[in-house]
Each structure stands twice: as C-alpha cells, then as structure tokens.
Design goal:
The complex is a heterodimer. By secondary structure, chain A is an all-alpha fold. Chain A has 20 helices and three strands. In chain A, a hairpin with a 4-residue loop joins β1 and β2 (353-354). The radius of gyration of chain A is 35 Å and the shape is elongated. Helix content of chain B is 29%, strand content 20%. Chain B contains 34 helices and 41 strands. Classes of the chains: A mainly alpha, B alpha/beta. Chains A and B meet through α14, β3, α16 and α19 of A and β1 and α32 of B.
Chain lengths: 460, 1040
C-alpha cells in the first residue's frame, strides 16, 4: 500500500507541469486516460492535500478499496451508487451505518449480498424492511463473491466522500501553444519590418550623402526631368490594361467559382444541439462503439439517431458526469445535460421511475445528403467494413459533432476510385470479382470498377 | 430602281379593294394606336403614386438579391428519433405485414409494405390460396388511408361528438327502441367475416328485434339466389379457369369484376401455350370488356339475346328442347360453341353475368351437365352476400315508418341506391340512424350520427373469402384519426369491454384454428381449414329445364338496352376520391378521369352522337391538340334520367350502350375528383341491364385519353401474333421472323453485329436484368400501372394535363383494335396496297385503317422503358443525364437533367415523361403529393422528381439494388429467383405475364424466356437492343 502511494506520488510529481482535473476518478488507476493540461501550483497543492487526506483514511480498512472499486463497478453499480439512492440504496459507509443504526454486523451483509431472497424468507426484520422500502424488488444474489471480494467492496464503500474540486483553469488555458507560434511569427515580421525600414533609411542616407558629394564636387546632376506619373503611362498603355483586366477577370472568376462550388457544401457544419451530446466523452473517453447507439447503420440506409431508450441503458445509472471538464463545460453543465435527457425521456431520477411524460428530442441534422442521392450506410459499414471515421472524421475527439467531410459527389467518387472491394468471406463477390478482375487484369477491384461510378447506383 | 415587281405580304394586298387595314399596315406595325396614354397619360395618378418606376425597380432588385442570397443558406433540418423505439422497426428498413382487404367490393389477401410505420405499398400475398391477387383498386387503396378528406372524428349532425357520448346515446336509443318493440336494422356491406357474423348474431340476441340486411352496391343477388336455391348456401360458385380448355362467357366479364373478380390469374395460366395447347375462349357480350378483349372469339349481341343463347346452349348440351329464335349469325355461333363445349365436356366451363335467377340457374345446370372440372361448388366464394329483395323491402319498410333504428356500415345507399330519395325519406322517419363511414358521404350527411370508421389498414378483421379459406386483417398503422371500427362499437353496445381483436382471437381459437397457432395464422395472413363440409346438391334438374324454357322465350328488346358495368379503375365508386384511380386509364377506352356512354359506331350515327374522327371542316372528335371530344346523350330509364358524354366503342353490340358505375360522386370529394356521372339512378331493381331511351344533348365533352390512335395500321411487328395452328405447325422463323435490313444490298438480320453502329459490351459478367412480357397472359387489368405508381412516386397530373398528353405513367398498357376483323387482316390489307390512289391505293387505304372494326380483335401491350442496350436517348443527352449501367438498366440522373427533352424525342417507344410542373409543391395539383397526409405514401427510396426533368421507368433499380445489398450483407450470392419480384410491375402481375430477373442467373425463368421461340423485341429493326422482351401472342382459332 505504502509502496503504491510512493509510486503514485513520484508519478504525481513527475507531471508537475501538467494537470488533471478529474481528481476523484483518477486518484488510483486512471492516469493514462487523463488529458494533462497546465495548471497552477496552488491547485496542485490543494489536490495533493486531498490526496494525502484520502490515503490516510485508507489505512482504516482491512479490504482493498481499489479492488473493491473495480468489483463495485462490475457488480453493483447498475443499481447502487455510493451517495445516491438508485434502484437500491446509497452504499457509502453502509457497514458502519448498519452497525450503528441496526446493530447488524458484516456477516449479515454477506448473507444479504449472497442471497437476499433467502434472508427475506427467513423473516429477518431489517431485510424485509429494505425489501419493502424498495418496492418489493429482490436484489440479485451474488453467491460468487468471496469474503475477500466483499471486504474489498465494503472497503471501497467505507471511503470518505471526496469533496469535488471545482476546476478553475486559467483563461489562457489551451491557447498558449497556439500563442507561442503566433508570437514568433510576429517577431519575425517585426524584425523584417525593422530591417526594411533600416534598409530604406540607409538607401536614403546613401542617396543624400552622394548628392552632398556631388554638390561638393560641383557635379551637375542636370535638371529634374518632368517625368510622366506612373499611373498615366499605365493608363496609356493599352496592352497593360488588357493584361490587367484579364488578370482581374481570372482572379474574380476563380473566386466566383470557389464561392459557387461551396454553395450547399456544409463541411464543418456544427449546429448547437438541444442536448449537448459529447461524442468525445462517449466514443472517445468511454470508447463506446459507434454502432452501439447507431445500430441501424449495420442494416439500413439510415445510421439512425439512437432513440432515448438506448441512452437510458447507461444513463439510468450514470446520473452525473465525473470525467474531465473544461471551463466551458464543467461538471454542472454536463449534469444539466443529463437532466435534459431525463426530462425528455420522462425519467424521474428521484423515484427511479418513468413518469410516462416524454418529449422527443428535436436534434438538428448535421449530415444532409440531397434527396436525389441514395446512400445506404450498411454498404460501407457491413459490407465494406469501413470505419465510421473514414467519412465522419475523428468523432471520438469531437466535443460538438460537426460535418467532417464535404459530402460532395466528387468526394464520394474519389473514395470509390481508390477503395478496393472487401471480397474476403463474401460469397456475393466470389464469382463476379474473379471474372471482372480477370477482365480488367488487376488483382483487386476498386468499387469504381465494380460499377460504383454508374449514375444509377446512387441516383434513382 | 426600275423593277416593276410588286411584293405582297398578304392575300389582302392582292385584292383590288385595298382595305384600310392593309393600307395602315404598310406604314405602321399595328393597325390601331397602342393605347399607351390610357395607363401612362394620367399624370396626376402617376405623380400621386408613392411608388415611382425607379422605386419599383429598386424594390424588385432588392428582393431578387435578397432572395438569391437567402437561397445560399441551407435549411435547418430536424431529426426526431423515437423516445422508445419499437423493437421491430429499424428506420430505413421496410416491414411487411400480411393482411386482407374486405371493403365490400374488393377482397384479397395482401402484404403491406410499411416504412417507419407508414404503409406505402400493397403487394401480393403469395401464401394466399384464395382467388386472384391484388387488382388496381387494391393497389391504390393504400392512398385511401391517407385521404385528407377522411372523417376525423365521430359526428352528431354537424357537431363533433366523443365516442363515449356517442355510444351512450346510441345505447340509450337502442334500449328505448327495444322497449317499444320497434325494429332495429343493421344495413351492412358483405363482410364475409365469421367473427362479425357471430358478433351480429350476439347483437341480434341482445336487442331482440334486429334485422340484418346485406347490401352490395353492385349486386350479384341473382347468382346468389340461384346458387342458394340449388345448393342451399348463399354463396357463389367458384371457378378455376386454369382447369378449363374451353371457356365460354355469356355477358360475364370474369377478367373484370364479375362476381367479385379475381379469376384472371388462373385464366392466364391456361392461356400460355404449353405443349402446343392453350385454352379456347368464346365470349358472348354486349359491352366490350376485358374478357371479350382477351377472347379468341367474341360475339357481340344484346343482353336479351344472351338469354336465348344461354337457353339454346343448355338445350344443346342437355338435350332438352327449347324454343327461341336467334339471327342466323347467332344460331351459327351457338351451334359451334355448343359443339365445342360438348367436345370438351369436363374440360369446358361456362359463366354468365346476367342479373337473372333463371339465367344463373341454367348456368349452374350447364356446368353440372358438362361435369366441368373448373366448376367448384364445394368451396364457393363468399365475397358477395347482398340480397336485393331484402334491400328493397327495407326501403319500403323504412318509408312506411316501420323501422325504428338503422345502423349502417360500409355502405353508402344515398349514393348507390337507385331510389335514394325514398331511402332518405325512410331515414328521416327512423329514431336512430348511424352510419360507419370513412367519409362524410351522401349517407353520412343524412344520418343523425356519422361514426368515423378506420381504413382497413387500421383495422382488425377476418374474412372467409372461399369456404374454409380464411384470411386475417390486422392494422399496419396506428389510427390516423379518432376512429373506431363497427365491430368495436358493436361490442361496446353489447356492454362488453373486450376489443374486436380479442374477440377475433377467441373466436378463431374456438371455431376456426382447430389447434393451429394464432400467431402463425396472423403471420401468414391466411389459414385454410381442413374441416370443409361438402355442399349438398339440392333438386338439380327440374327447375333448370323450366328456367331454360322461360329464358328461351325472352322477348327481344325492341329498343336500346343499357348495360351498367363496374369500370376496372373505379369499381363501385367507394374509392372515387383516389387520384391514382381517377388517372388510371381504362384498359379499353384508355380514358382517364371520366365515365361515359359507350356506343357502337352504327348506333352513334343513327342517333346523331357521332363525331368524325378527323376533319378540318366540321366538328371533329379530336382537337388540334389531339384532345378527344365527345357529344352528350340523355338516357332515360323508368323516368330516371342521366346525361352522359359519349364515346364510340368498337365492339359494342349494336342496339346496346354501356355506362359504368362509380362516378358522379360529389360529397367528401375534392373538386377535381368530382368527375363523370352516376349510373346508380338507372340501376332500377338492381338489374345491370335496362331498357333505355336515348336522345342527343347539345354540348361537347372534353375527354382526357392517353391513347389517341387506336389501330396498328397493319404494323404486325409491334404486336406479333399468330394462331395456335400456325404456332404448332410452323417454325418460329415463319411466325416470329427476325427483321432484316439491307447491308450491301443483302438482306441481313438486324441482330447481325455487322449492321450495328455500336460495339457490343460484354454483358455476361455480373447481373443483367431483363423483363419478359407475355402478351398471351396479359389481360390488361392494369394492376401493374398502379403498383408502379405507388413504388416510384409517379405524380398525378390531372385531367387537363392528361388532355395535353402530359401523362406521367411510367408504365402504360397500349390497347390496339384491329381495323379489319383480325390483325392478320390488317397486315394483309396493308401489304396489298398498290400505288397511292385508286381502290387499292395506300392513301385512302391507310385512312380506312385508322378506323377500328365494328367487332375488332383487341391486343394489350404493356410498355415501359425498354432499357435499350444501345439506347438512342443516351446518345442525345447533352448533359449525360441518362446513361447505361452494366446491369442493363438505363439510368436517369434527375439532378443532372436540364430538361432539353431530346431524349424523349429520340425514344422510339415514347416512354419518357417530362415534369412540366412541380407536382409535389403546387396547389394547382392538389392530388396527393401536395398535402402532408398524401405524402405519407411516398416511397422514401425513390426521388420525388422536380419540375423540368425527364423521368421514366428505372426497372425499379431501388429494388434490384436492395436485393444485391441484402445478399452482400449476408455474404452470399443472390438467391434463385430473388430478383423476380424486384420490379413493382412484375411483382404485381398475378397472371404471370411479366417476369423480371437476371438473365445471367442460370436456370432463372427469365433466362429461359428470352430464348423462347415466342420472344421478340419491340421495333427490333431499329436495332436498339431492348432489355424488355415480348412473347408473341397466340390466338386459339381452332374451332373444335
């Protein structure tokens, strides 16, 4: 234990110049997933103080709270939280509470966890009280948990509640790196400017000095000729005007073309959604498979915005956000968004029940293909086995979802030209691929060679 | 200049008395001064106006600039997912549900394709063992669901009322009626529903004095009466035409809606020549019908003659002697027909469509006597139950005030009853009147309560279409409006709390399923019960002889006879507010948005209803634009009169007229759909045949016809046909020759690569789609036309636009009449022309050939984009908007099209359609694409085309691609036959005339069909190498 702490502290200090914000979660084993950022020393010290306070309390238990946490998350977290009544009661300091209030010992708890139904049947007063309090739903029995496991879990539940550290990162947080390069550019520019100014001044001085020399040597420089102004000679030179006009026409043509070509192309479209759903947290931090939520992408043309009951699969137990936060999106913000979900789906978090009053979420659609283009998600997803990111970009890094690809026809076609068909283990392609590749004299056919460029494959 | 030449600009200048106009025009551009001062001379007004010309230009400039700038900004699109997504729904993937339509007129087991919970298309349920497949009306019924004029909630008079209030009030009134002993009447459509029958029995029991009257708008009561009398069941004999080699129809349009329809599939089976055999079909009829058009021999005659013909046939088959006189021509026809029937015996079948119990009895007796295998009394058809006498009695009782309360469902007697006024009187005398209706129709306006009924796609139900053959109806969408179905309300009136769904389920488990799984039945949509008691034959012979004698004694009608018939597109008229059906071209007349009086040319000339086909100097049947015109005629039957426009119908029996039901509906109809005239006022005694007097009426009627030229002019290569005899005895090169072209003065087949301008691509790799259309099997029913509409978001353009030949149908069924007695006669006549003028000259000869014969041969030819491998449209597109795919499809990239229409001009088949307007966003075209409800049936996988672009059949590339993608996803080759139902038309084709598929798929039906001896390409000599093949039409002219 002590060794662990030592290692931990060493690690801690080795990251002195970086920071992490989800202090509570990462007090033990989550170091790798943390996004480190700069933060002030004061914050660090506060953190350290808390850390020491927790580590002090660890010694009071005989189980291992770390192992306990893992066990808790696997077995108990679906119905229990430490500090909040969910399907089952809040479990922080459950052992102590039972001992103090009911005079029940750890053995009772073991019996309850391993076979609550049996305990209830035996007529145990408190067991029946709990059973009735929670709507007569018996707790799942966990006979597979050993004494040690249970001790570990109880050790975990016995931990003091950590006081939330409200992150107060400084304003320039995150911009600094960009700022660095900006400064150096400016510096170079300024230096260049000064250099040119010096050069101009030098030339002027040289000129002046030379004149003075000339005057001193009585050299006649001749009268100042009355030269035509530059613009006048330009205006009179019709060739130059023609060239300039053509030049300007070409330039404006280029920009007009550019403007027209982007009409209707919404690359980077990033609307504000009614619920701030962070793909970064779900797909990135928590590594949820895209197709867990967008399941219809496997079989349908539409990838499908998940219905709210899919959200509730997890969010029935995840009622608050405990991951990394930023100044813009702090814990209160994310918790608020989860509340929005509850309101939409009609979930009463207090009573842990559906109220039946739901209001569907009106998401703003980001990827809008025109109606005359048919696209079926199941082709690239299930048949070709492409990653979603191929078209949708690094979704796992997107705090707010945006349109990554231009979704233009040229973009589609380019990919079809470059991508080979995934023939492996697909009986459909066997015959046609053999025949066609022989005809084209290639080993592997691209989607285009299979007919993926034909108009009617997408437009009907 | 010394020239004396005088140049003149107009005839006016030449004449001696030079008018002042000519003089004035020499000096000025216009004869009169332009009245500029009138609008610019008034300085006072000009000055007082706050908007000067400059200001105006500024405003215009600014708003144009603002509008164009704003257009650069993309719209914000919202996307709203489910809160809780139903397990079986995946956005973007279609779900199919098996259900049934049973609207009292159309009955079919179908599959409903739904997308995101919206039904968008009807398909055939291949598991169904009942008659027929979905017809055009059934395919169109999905649009009725999304009718913006549906009744949204129950009403009491004008005011809205809640269901609880309505039910409470109705129960109150029913209780009062029960207490006072007054009669309660249930007037309903034919349900053919075992559960509803049980429910009505329970209702009868609960309220005591209840009478249930079943009413079919277009009655089959005579046939039902005859069958009931003979076999003890109120049902209709069932026929399997695939088992018959000789088919005789007497006034029965069995390929149309005769006795509920649905016989075309089996009929078509027997029409495809196999092993040198095909069925022979002889049709005796007055109106030109689909059945007559498909017949090998068609005998036009009056309905009164039909009765005698039937009696004589009976006598010749059974040996009973009957009197009766016929013209020698008919005698001869009867003689030959009888001998054919007698020869075929058990392989023959005779059907009759006369609304006459005796005729129907004789028909049953004839089939019994023949021992017809196609004739089936054991599993009779249950889809018509109406009883004319009961309906007439009910109207009389209501008028007499004997009926206390009436509850109606699925009927609209105020529109369909010939004596609607009497019904209205009777309705006013009831204490309770309630109708279940989807519309605030004629009847709903007269009843105290109008109960908003759900569409069948929102309802539960069960149907026993044939005895022992059950189908289930299940909702495919949550009710769009505050509706409740009849059966649910009946349950409420009985004080039961269970829903009709529970009721059906319980009833099926108790009495139908006999141990089978309910879930499986619901999944399949159909269930065939093993327990099927045989119909007993009651008193077979005696009354048939009497009936035949009585028939034979039918006096010949002295005047004109009118035959009322249901039109293929409109049926009994309950779907009249359906724009797809309004724009559906009638298979025979090819006229849309109308009904009309069909008159033979001879009669039209006699009565003064004739317009010359084309004439510069007098009134013409065609305008310069090509629009078809007609005169009006006033028809009077029993004092009831109707004025209808007239068309000349080739094949119409002399002395008869035809007028279709289903039109002239006014209530709860969009203005544009209020077309035609109602024939129901003439439907006295529910008899489709009426003695009629006729008189011409002033005025010209403008028709919207999609085909203006009716004959083939001897172009035998467009519809190739031959006779069974030649087909069996000669080589295919004789009756299906490959066209030849001249190469170095040598006749060379057009298929020879040397005569081709183009290099051939290798099409043996991958898929290559082709479509085969069998002209023998195609009955012209038009189900494919509507299926294509639904699948491909084809817009409806309206009557005015159709008249301008701007119809948008991707798939049309061309109908041709022969000018001589046969098409072969046309060919011979054309080949026999010599020189320009003279008796045998082509000049006059071709004019003659434009006119169809009085009793022509008819041929149908479905035409869609032929997907030419050497497509002429592709080479002329200046922007390469249309191009060819490796899979054989001719692609059309709408977003690339700039609308030059070169392609349409260069298309030899005239299948390309141009979007003259933005039909989906223009209030002028308020059909279905223009309101949110109607848009629900749009297929999300197919682009809704915009104004200014060409469109055409795509071989349903969205479906072929979907099949391919499915196979790719599952990592397997495309399964055998998987492509067959990809095209909406071939999937809808119940008769098997259309077969679609991949010709590179070994053993697929299409790969065989394209090599068939009968296969040919349309206009093959053009050398465009189409991917649609037609199968030569073979006629069975062998008079046995």
């Amino acid at each position: 234990m002590l060794l662990l702490q030592v290692i931990f502290i060493t690690e801690y200090f080795s990251f002195m110049k970086k920071s992490y914000q989800n202090f509570e979660d990462n007090s033990t084993n989550n170091m790798k997933q943390v996004k480190y950022r700069k933060f002030s020393l004061r914050f660090l010290l506060t953190g350290l103080l808390f850390f020491l306070a927790i580590s002090a309390s660890l010694h009071a238990q005989d189980g291992d709270p770390d192992k306990g946490k893992a066990l808790f998350n696997t077995n108990c977290a679906a119905c229990h939280s430490l500090d909040k009544k969910m399907t089952g009661p809040a479990l922080r300091k459950v052992e102590q509470r039972l001992a103090d209030d009911q005079g029940l010992d750890r053995e009772w708890l073991y019996a309850w966890i391993r076979n609550s139904a049996g305990l209830i049947k035996s007529g145990d007063a408190y067991a029946n009280q709990v059973f009735n309090e929670y709507g007569g739903a018996a707790m799942t029995a966990f006979p597979q948990l050993s004494d040690e496991d249970l001790a570990n879990i109880l050790a975990y539940t016995a931990k003091e509640k950590e006081i939330k550290v409200i992150s107060t990162p400084s304003g320039d947080d995150g911009i600094e790196t960009d700022g660095g390069s900006g400064v150096s550019n400016n510096l170079i520019l300024a230096a260049l400017g000064i250099l040119f100014a010096l050069l101009a001044m030098g030339l002027y001085m040289v000129n002046k000095t030379l004149r003075r020399f000339a005057e001193a040597n009585n050299l006649d420089l001749g009268p100042e000729t009355n030269r035509k102004p530059l613009w006048k000679s330009f205006v009179e030179n019709q060739f130059l005007i023609l060239v300039t006009a053509i030049f300007f026409l070409l330039i404006s043509g280029y920009y007009a073309y550019g403007f027209l070509m982007q009409v209707g192309v919404d690359q980077g479209y990033q609307p504000i959604q009614p619920i701030h759903f962070s793909h970064k947290i779900h797909a990135g931090d928590n590594e949820i498979d895209c197709k867990y939520c967008h399941s219809s992408a496997r079989v349908s043309k539409a990838s499908g915005i998940p219905s709210l009951n899919i959200c509730m699969n997890c969010h029935k137990s995840i009622y608050e956000y405990n991951g990394a936060t930023t100044a813009e999106y702090d814990k209160a913000f994310y918790d608020g968004e989860i509340k929005k979900l509850y309101a939409a789906v009609g979930w009463d978090d207090e009573s842990q029940k559906y109220t039946g009053e739901s209001s569907p979420v009106k998401w703003i659609r980001i990827h809008n293909l025109p109606d005359f283009a048919y696209f079926n998600h199941s082709q690239p997803v299930s048949v070709a086995g492409l990653q979603c990111q191929t078209c949708h970009g690094p979704v796992e890094e997107m705090e707010i979802m945006y349109q990554y690809s231009p979704l233009t026809m040229g973009w589609c076609i380019n990919c079809h030209r470059e991508t080979n068909i995934k023939v492996k283990d697909n009986g459909y392609y066997e015959k046609i691929h053999a025949e066609l590749s022989k005809k084209y004299g290639v080993d592997k056919l691209t989607a285009a060679q299979m007919g993926g460029l034909e108009c009617g494959k997408c437009h009907y | 200049m010394s020239s004396n030449k005088k140049y003149w600009k107009s005839v006016g200048e030449l004449s001696q008395d030079n008018s002042s106009v000519v003089e004035a025009l020499k000096h000025k551009e216009f004869v009169e001064e332009i009245p500029v001062d009138e609008f610019l001379g008034d300085d006072k007004t000009m000055e007082s106006s706050s908007t000067t010309r400059r200001d105006f230009l500024k405003y215009v400039g600014f708003s144009t600039a603002a509008a164009s700038l704003a257009a650069c900004e993309g719209p914000v699109t919202k996307s709203i997912p489910y809160v809780v997504q139903p397990e079986q729904i995946i956005p973007g993937v279609a779900n199919f549900y098996a259900t049934s339509i049973a609207n009292g007129y159309d009955f079919a087991s179908i599959l409903v394709k739904t997308r995101e919970g919206r039904p968008i298309k009807i398909e055939n349920n291949t598991m169904a063992s009942t008659n027929g497949t979905a017809n055009a009306r059934v395919h169109a019924s999905v649009l009725d669901l999304c009718d913006s004029l549906r009744l949204a909630n129950p009403k009491k008079g004008e005011a809205d009322i809640s269901w609880t209030e309505l039910e409470a009030e109705v129960i109150q009134k029913l209780k009062t009626l029960q207490a006072s002993g007054k009669e309660i009447v249930l007037l309903t459509q034919t349900f053919a529903s075992p559960s509803t029958a049980k429910l009505i029995a329970e209702f009868t029991e609960a309220y005591g004095n209840v009478r249930h009257v079943v009413y079919d708008a277009v009655s089959e009561s005579a046939a039902l009466d005859a069958f009931e009398k003979r076999y003890g069941v109120r049902a209709l004999a069932n026929y399997d035409f695939s088992k018959a080699t000789t088919i005789v129809g007497v006034g029965a349009d069995f390929l149309g809606d005769w006795q509920g329809g649905g016989y075309d599939c089996e009929y078509a089976n027997g029409r495809i020549p196999q092993d040198g055999k095909m069925s022979r079909h002889i049709q005796f009829e007055s109106n030109m019908t689909l059945s007559g058009a498909n017949a090998d021999k068609r005998v036009p005659l009056k309905p009164s003659e039909q009765k005698v013909v039937l009696a004589k046939l009976y006598s010749k088959i059974t040996g009973t002697s009957v009197a009766g006189k016929l013209s020698p021509y008919l005698e001869d026809a009867v003689e030959k027909t009888a001998s054919e029937l007698n020869k075929a015996k058990g392989n023959a079948v005779l059907v009759c469509g006369l609304d006459d119990v005796e005729a129907q009895t004789v028909t049953l007796a004839i089939n019994e006597a023949l021992g017809s295998k196609a004739f089936d009394t054991k599993t009779p058809s249950m889809i018509r139950q109406g009883d004319d006498k009961a309906v007439s009695a009910l109207v009389a009782d209501m008028k007499a005030g004997k009926v206390g309360g009436i509850i109606m469902c699925g009927v609209n007697p105020m529109y369909t009853l010939p004596n609607a006024n009497e019904f209205a009187e009777g309705l006013a005398r009831t204490e309770l009147s309630l109708t279940f209706t989807m519309k605030q129709d004629e009847t709903a306006l007269k009843t105290q309560y109008a109960a908003a009924a759900p569409h069948y796609l929102e309802s539960w139900g069960d149907v026993e279409m044939k005895k022992g053959h059950y189908s289930l109806m299940q909702p495919t969408i949550r009710p769009l409006f505050d509706t409740k179905q009849f059966q649910d309300v009946l349950l409420a009136l009985l004080g039961k709390t269970l829903t009709y769904h529970d009721y059906i389920k319980a009833n099926w488990k108790d009495s139908i399923l006999s141990g089978s799984k309910w879930g499986q039945a619901l999944h399949d949509g159909v269930f065939v019960s093993e327990a099927n008691d045989k119909t007993a034959l009651i008193d077979p012979a005696s009354d048939a002889n009497a009936a035949a004698r009585s028939l034979a004694a039918t006096p010949m009608a002295s005047g004109y006879e009118l035959i009322l018939y249901p039109k293929t597109g409109m049926g009994d008229g309950q779907q009249a507010n359906n724009p797809w059906l309004q724009e559906f071209p009638d298979p025979l007349s090819r006229i849309t948005w109308d009904n009309y009086l069909t008159v033979s040319e001879a009669d039209a000339k006699d009565i003064g209803l004739y317009l010359a086909p084309s004439d510069f100097f007098t009134e013409s049947s065609h305008e310069a634009t090509g629009g078809l015109n007609g005169k009006y005629a006033k028809l009077t039957v029993n004092g009831a009169s109707v004025t209808a426009p007239v068309i000349i119908q080739p094949g119409q029996a002399k002395g008869t007229f035809g007028l279709s039901f289903g039109y002239g509906k006014k209530e709860a109809m969009k203005i544009e759909m209020q077309t035609g005239v109602s024939a129901y006022p003439l439907y006295a005694n529910f008899n489709a045949v009426q003695d009629v007097t006729i008189a011409p009426v002033d005025g010209r009627h403008e028709f919207a016809a999609v085909q203006l030229h009716n004959t083939l002019m001897g172009r035998g290569d467009i519809i190739k046909e031959t006779t069974l005899e030649i087909f069996n005895t000669k080589k295919s090169s004789h009756w299906n020759p490959i066209p030849v072209v001249s190469l170095n003065h040598q006749e060379t087949p057009v298929t020879d690569p040397r005569v081709d301008l183009w290099d051939e691509f290798d099409r043996s790799i991958g898929h290559h789609f082709q479509l085969s259309i069998d002209l023998n099997a195609c009955t012209g029913c038009g189900a494919c036309v509507i299926a294509c509409h639904a699948e491909n978001n084809v817009p409806v353009v309206g009557k005015e636009e159709i008249r301008r030949s701007r119809d948008m149908h991707w798939l049309r069924i061309d109908r041709y009449y022969s000018s001589e007695d046969t098409f072969e006669g046309d060919n011979e006549k054309k080949d026999g022309f010599s020189g320009l003028s003279g008796d045998n000259g082509s000049l006059g000869g071709f004019v003659d050939m434009e006119a169809p014969s009085a009793n022509p041969q008819v041929a149908f030819q479905p035409i869609m984009c032929q997907h030419c491998n050497h497509a002429p449209c592709e080479t002329v597109c200046p922007v390469a908007a249309t191009s060819h795919g490796r899979q054989g499809q001719n692609h059309m990239a709408y977003n690339r099209c700039v609308g030059t229409r070169y392609c349409a001009n260069n298309c030899p088949y005239k299948v390309r359609r141009f979007n003259w307007f933005l039909y989906n966003g223009n209030d002028e075209f308020d059909y279905f694409m223009n309101d949110d409800l109607g848009r629900m049936v749009l297929n999300p996988d197919v682009t809704v085309r915009s104004r200014g672009v060409m469109e055409k059949c795509s071989f349903c590339i969205q479906s072929t691609q979907a099949v391919i993608l499915k196979a790719k996803r599952e990592g397997r080759p495309v399964a055998k036959g998987e492509f067959n139902d990809a095209c909406a038309c071939s999937a809808a084709c119940g008769s098997g005339a259309m077969r679609f598929g991949d010709v590179n798929e070994e053993g697929s039906p299409i790969s065989e069909l394209i090599k068939d001896d009968r296969a040919y390409h349309l206009l093959e000599h053009v050398g465009v190498k189409p991917n649609v093949v037609y199968q030569v039409k073979v006629r069975n002219t062998n008079e046995a």
